[in-house]
Specification:
Oligomer: homotetramer
Helix content of chain A: 40-55%
Largest sheet of chain A: 7 strands, mixed
Order of helices and strands of chain A: HHEEEHEHEHHEEHHH
Largest interface: A-B, 39 and 34 residues
Radius of gyration of chain A: 19 Å
Strand content of chain A: 5-15%
Distance between the termini of chain A: 37 Å
Strand order of the largest sheet of chain A: 3-2-1-4-7-6-5
Shape of chain A: globular
Number of helices of chain A: 9
Structural class of chain A: alpha+beta
């Protein structure tokens, strides 16, 4: 027992002593800002979370301890394995729904960032028969499937709080960028943190546009798959000052104004 | 007469001199923050109020003097008996609708906190035939009944300004957590202050979700009673960093930023 | 000519020299705060205006020079006669729609404060056939009529920019508290400034409630005239800490936080 | 090659050394404020842009480098020719959709300011068959046409990123003040910066009004062309303290409060 405790302790202090690489620090910083931005942009409320795959260990991911996203700071960021387990011992509470993240990282080697939110205008699409189709959101192709815990596991409290549910959700997500969780929220994935924050924000925005288009009535001209593919190609190429780069600076400034300086 | 005045005075100065227990102080603090949060979250406007059962005297409850919730401070908190009467003499104005609170505390020994609000997206449900059913709000079971002063007492100014109306409302509320007041607002109850604030906020949120789901049209998948029961069980267990604990820190910070420091 | 200029000058400097009575100062202060509050509450945008009948001269009213309500300060307040004329010479621009106010003061001896706004959720009711009926707004009785410049005067730029149009509007308003101006906004009247601000804010709020009730569909339970009459009676009696008194403190604090200190 | 580099360098340093005329400085200042205002008023998000024709060179226009409008400062403003080319060499990123502006300035000698935005309530009108007609927006006449890149150029990423697309858009805009871009946003034009900001804001406002009027159902009374013509005539005459003059002061103050001081 003593040996085990010692091993855990040295792992924890080891992680504390090792200075993060510049790449790791950049991901941690984006993760912290991403939490604040998602809250300031009203995509997450006190719940919801964002994670990033560890840049040096593809079998680990980084996420805050269980805390409201609007309050997350760098010291909150923890490391998890792909079974949802903590890498270093830590007494602070952790998100019960970390399995949303761990199972996506297992199933999707192309994904390096994940958001789970209760995006308010998205939830109505998760409980009706109206598909969430793209007006402007080019990453909605091939589709935005709906995952229902009821179909996957009967009566639950809706939380994706174990690997089995996480795997079922990841199966529903498939190769898509967004999946809805019935009566609950959504999961959004992307190749990096800034892109996943952008996608989470524009998923909510597209839901608003579609709701209003439905209110106007009549036929709706959706984004064509061909158009979406061309838009995704532009977004994919990193061009400083364009795409998610242009908005990050502004979102960060507004988020820190609303939620307070990072300590 | 002189004896009575002296008795009242000594009761008042007695209350002032006795230092609140840690438990009482915690309830008072939550009550003050709760007022500010409900206002900052746009659940109450300049009206509406929140109360808590006295932790040491189950036949008393604590509530601010008549003041806009966004301005309440600790010195505003007064003590009332379950007939809506002031415990200690006080010349400051008191809420005419304190009977919403007093009669609920009489009828519901399980309830220790009550909110009355004019929650904006909830009121339309109180004047139409569309039941306020749960999309995400697990505490909407068994149901959200609608109380109408017209049925209870004919023509009134809609205010629950006496015991008889308070009792009629409490009868309509029954064992539920939320009841609507036609053309007026709602009452929300819970076992403690943080939970009642959480429920008041998520009642408004669920009303928004349901309104939007109705706008999309077609069948709606509501939360099943079985699912709600499991969610309520999780919420019931106090788990630090989870449930209403996670949001309180953030809500408090935002509320104080919007409404000003507590004096 | 020189005599006239001198007379005007002495009237102006006279007005400047005479110290306002406490009653007049109170009205001016409420007018300035009322401007800020209406803007902070999103009832007026950069346009719209609020006036008060002069407490000592019933044939005059007080209103800001032409300025966005969110910026009005005490030095902006001017005096007008009931033909819309300036009492003292002043080179600063004045509202072209001051005739909304002057003609109401002529027609309604019971009215001492008037708001004209482009209240955003109210305008849709002015261009459709759906009457703006009371869900919570007890001052909507007897009714909320719609005034159309087209019916009154054929093709115009919609502005009530002369006495004739002001009189036509006042005739449509009749004994009501609110009238809509088609495709433009509304006029709201009351016995004092704090009440007219309250009514302007709750006209917008009731419009939102009714719009949402319409979206839910089915029959709507409106406030009964009997209930409204009882509510108006309560509002009429000035009770410190209740009615518009309770909200004024909070609205003023928020308005000054948003629009800046009064200079 | 050396000669060319020297020539470019001297052009750049020349532009830097030459002090802007008072008229040019005024346009640059309005452009910077206009960017901030459009963002603070939620007409543009992190994208969108505003430009002004050079007051001394009708074959040039001024616009920020590629940057979120909420962050633009005077040093960001660049000069472009009507083929969308930079006048002075500059390594900072430029808006790929500058051709929206250049081609409008070519086609419309009466236009001196252009806004491109993703105005949120306007986009639903661009993807449905409901024409964006005027409730209050007098500048919507003759009409608000919809431009679709699909019709003009088949499958694209929707960006107006070359002259050909810019010309096609300008042809659709014709002599109108507003045109919608399907599934994307809109372009708004005017004789000066303050007017184009006003129009962009009130295009969004009118879209909201029309959406709500549609939700109420039944016949809608639109602004008549005769009324609009009279309103436009008033707006056209510059009257200090009226029209867009009245709102500019307030919008500027709010925008700087939200987006930060100009450095």
């Amino acid at each position: 027992m003593a040996k085990k405790r010692k091993a855990l302790q040295s792992k924890k202090s080891g992680a504390a002593k090792a200075r993060p690489s510049a790449e790791l620090q950049a991901v941690i910083d984006d993760l912290v800002i991403g939490n604040r931005v998602l809250y300031a942009q009203d995509v997450v409320d006190g719940y919801g979370h964002i994670s990033a795959r560890h840049p040096h260990h593809p079998d680990r991911f980084l996420m805050s301890r269980a805390r409201a996203p609007g309050l997350v700071v760098a010291a909150d960021i923890m490391e998890f394995g792909l079974d949802g387990e903590l890498i270093a011992a830590d007494e602070r509470p952790i998100y019960s729904e970390r399995f949303i993240h761990s199972e996506v990282y297992k199933a999707r080697p192309d994904v390096n960032a994940v958001v789970h939110s209760h995006s308010p205008t998205v939830v109505p699409f998760s409980v009706t028969q109206v598909p969430l189709r793209p007006i402007r959101a080019s990453f909605f192709y091939p589709e935005v499937p709906v995952f229902d815990t009821r179909a996957a596991a009967g009566w639950t409290n809706l939380l994706i709080s174990n690997s089995a549910l996480g795997q079922a959700l990841a199966r529903t997500l498939g190769q898509n960028s967004v999946a809805l969780l019935r009566g609950h929220g959504n999961v959004v994935v992307a190749p990096n943190v800034r892109m996943v924050v952008y996608r989470a924000i524009y998923t909510e925005a597209n839901a608003k546009l579609l709701l209003q288009a439905k209110m106007l009535g009549g036929p709706i001209t959706y984004l064509a798959p061909e158009e979406a593919a061309l838009m995704e190609k532009s977004q994919g190429r990193h061009r400083p000052g364009h795409g998610s780069d242009r908005t990050w600076e502004m979102w960060k400034q507004e988020a820190l104004a609303r939620t307070g300086k990072l300590r």
